[in-house]
UniProtKB/TrEMBL annotation:
Name of this chain's protein: Uncharacterized protein
Species annotation: Chitinophaga ginsengisegetis
Length: 162
């Protein structure tokens, strides 16, 4: 794990709006939707548009899909019963999205027992920030960054302390 291998950074540009930078270069943008107003959460990575959809059926509650511009799923996360964790397949490989909340929120993507990418809430500077860890080969595909960003960005101190 190496926090410094490639510098990942999220900057807030407005209410629910963020830009993702890698080594200071803009990779994409994120816009959090409003569920009450039925506004979708959207993002773009290197000029490719995506949106996030949650399943609401009886047996698929909590499942997450990331859809491309054509509305086709590029990532389908299936919730693991009685947990906040998910299983998913990406590029013919199996992954697990793992949530921990002790002492603060942490979302990690694991392949087998190996960490691929992790976003952890960091309050050490008095404001809500991120501590990001990644495996070296996680630097070539940013979809995981936007998934983890979606789960943690825009949260307030009171949200992560509960």
């Amino acid at each position: 794990m190496n926090d410094l291998f490639m510098e990942r950074q999220w900057n807030q540009t407005g209410e629910g709006k963020f830009v993702f930078l890698m080594n200071g270069e803009e990779i994409g943008t994120y816009q959090r939707g409003d569920d009450w107003k039925k506004e979708p959460t959207t993002f773009n990575i290197l000029q490719n548009e995506y949106n996030i959809e949650y399943s609401s059926g009886l047996f698929s509650r909590g499942n997450i899909k990331i859809l491309n511009e054509s509305g086709e799923p590029v990532l389908k996360l299936k919730s693991i019963p009685f947990s906040l964790n998910f299983n998913f397949e990406y590029q013919n490989r199996q992954f697990k999205l793992v949530f921990k909340d002790a002492p603060l929120w942490q979302w990690s993507i694991m392949e087998k027992d190996n960490l691929v990418l992790s976003y952890k809430t960091d309050l050490s500077k008095g404001t809500t920030g991120l501590s990001i860890q990644s495996r070296e080969d996680a630097d070539s595909d940013y979809l995981f960054d936007f998934l983890l960003g979606h789960l943690i960005l825009g949260k307030e101190k009171k949200d992560v302390m509960e």
